[in-house]
Amino acid sequence: MKQRLLGISALATGVLCANVALADGGYYSGVKGAVASGRGGAFVARADDVSAVELNPAGLTHIGTTIIQIGNRFSYNQHSYTRNPTLDWGQTDTQPTPPYVQFPTVRNQTPWQVLDPFIGIASNFGLKDWAFAAAIYSPAGTAREVYPTDGGQRYMMVRRNAQMINYTLSAAWKHNDVFGVGATVKWIAVPSLEYALIIDGSPFSSPANAVRSDVDVHASVKGSDLFTLNAILGAWLRPTPNLEIGLSGQILPSEIHTKSTLSASLAHPSNYSITLMRGTVPANDVSLTLPLPMSARLGARYRHLDGDREVFDVELDGVYETWSRVDHFRLDSNNLTAYYRMQPVPIGVIDIEKNWSNTLGIHLGGDFAVVPQRLTVRGGAYYETPVSDPAYQNIDFPQGPQFGGALGASIYFGKLQISVAGEYRAQSQVYVADSDSRVYQQAPGSSCKAPYTSTVDCNSHYLGIPAPPVNGGTYNAYSVIGTLEAAYRF
Fold first, then answer.
1. 231 and 33 in contact (C-beta within 8 Å)?
2. Which of 44, 101, 340, 371 has CA 20 to 30 A from 446's CA?
3. 34 band by pLDDT with thresholds 50, 70 and 90
4. For the stretch 395-413, what's the b/e string if a residue is b when 16 or more beta carbons lie within 10 angstroms of its beta carbon?
């Protein structure tokens, strides 16, 4: 019974192994703004609308007037996983030979995301060399994913629902048309952050329930953090009329600290329940810490001019993000104790290694003025390196190499600009052999401990590892993204 309780007390460990992410490809995916999106994200040097608050705040000085910009990003995000077939060695107590289990492909059951807004205003307030802006927007990405509770991915994740809002204030200054600098102060609010998965709560030492257990536990963490501070600095330089260079970066090594609640229940019908308490008082509050990456963007663009009018431009950007800061997640139970059949077990503080890597993205794009001040078309393409080694691949978001392409256009009606963009983003198919898998089923009730070689406490078929690997299989992911935006210049 004590071992069963140990399994329940480590619920939070399993929840953290859901690879907490607010969006696919790291916490973020792509860029906001129809013009930036239509250029495949190559917008650091150009940055001449309100989306500059995120990509390069110095570019606000290119606007030269007052502008209101409102847009929305629509996306269809299909992620799928087919787990490798496995022998279920945990069933040998009821039958002489282990059953060979094959798993159907599971897919994200909530692929549509129809609300992903951007609202901003920028103005120079009549000042020749200054610009100021305020914006509210959600980071580009997939907010919600749901998978079957009995699917092959159940020990990695069954649900993720994350909401994030950025509130920004920006200021920029330029010297003639030679160079400019700018800064954005960003207030990050996370109204809701929820994750859930299945944990094997078996109290037995040697069985390895690679497929399911009668004491599986559905565990979830839900919380919020309404204030995290960050900042973006940017600059641009125009050494010649035809060449412009842009540089920006998110500079603060900040973290999100959610105030959350932990819930747990047996995944299969039972007469027993799990109770969480602090001292003699029922409680379920915990805190979750998520590091945020820093980033650097460098871009250069060629401007083809006809007199003072820009006919077309071509821009090449490099984006570097320090995802290695996300080396672990930490969940602090604030001295919670789990009770199952009246037996207490402290939960404590839990750290989970993630082994994420820094990423590099290459973006190429540009605009062409088909009819000056009437119609502009644009396009772009990009490639981004993987955020983690395939051995740590997970179902919650695509971690493999990302590539994509985009097309867009702007139509002008006097001072009103209507912009649209379409983007296709995909992950190169990732296959993980079970022998390479490094994401293991959470079975903390087992007394099989490191180095996991005991033939008494550990299953002889999984010696050397803590539990059956659960992330072996084939991963596919793609997103189809559309952005519609209106900008009015006074």
1. no
2. 101
3. very high
4. bbbbbbbbebbbbbbbebe
Q: Which of 13-22, 124-133, 269-278 has the highest mean pLDDT?
A: 124-133
Token pair belonging to 436? 């390479």
> What pLDDT, in 10s, does the model give residues 465-488?
888 999 999 999 999 999 999 999
Q: Which of 204, 122, 186 is nearest to 443 (CA)?
A: 204
Categorize the per-residue pLDDT at 206 as very low, low, confident or very high, splitting at 50, 70 and 90. Answer: low
Q: How far is CA 138 from the centre of its chain?
A: 12
b (16+ CB within 10 A) / e for 470-480: bbbbebbbbbe
- Residue 45 in contact with residue 36, Cβ under 8 Å? no
Q: How far apart are CA 467 and CA 448, in angstroms?
A: 9
| Summary mean pLDDT of the chain | 88
210 contact partners, CB below 8 Å, separation of at least 6: 86, 87, 88, 89, 90, 101, 441, 468, 470
Residue 70 neighbours by CB under 8 Å, 6+ apart: 117, 118, 119, 120, 485, 486, 487
Unique residue bearing structure tokens 């691949």: 393
Task: Report the candidate in 413, 421, 428, 468 with the shortest Cα–Cα distance to residue 446.
Answer: 468
Domain with 409 in it: 2-489
According to DSSP, the β-strands at 281-282 and 274-278 are antiparallel
Is 35 within 8 Å of 410 (Cβ atoms)?
Answer: yes
Which tens digit of pLDDT belongs to each residue from 248-305?
999 999 998 899 998 888 887 777 778 888 988 999 999 888 888 899 999 999 999 9
- In Å, the largest CA–CA distance within the chain is 84
Q: What is the DSSP string of 125-161?
A: TT-TTEEEEEEEEPPSS--EEE--TTSTTTTT-SEEE
Cis omega (within 30 of 0) for bond into 398? no
pLDDT at 270: 73
Q: How many domains does the chain have?
A: 1
CATH of the domain at 38: 2.40.160.60
Single-letter amino acid, residue 228:
T
More confident residue, 309 or 10: 309
Instruction: Note whether 183 and 53 are within 8 A (CB).
Output: no
CA geometry: angle 419, 422, 427, nearest 5 deg: 145
Q: Tokens 């599986």 map to which residue?
A: 216
Beta bridge partners of 320: 296, 360
Does residue 263 sit in helix, strand or coil? strand
CA distances from 65 to 61, 122, 184, 246, 309 (A): 9, 8, 19, 21, 18
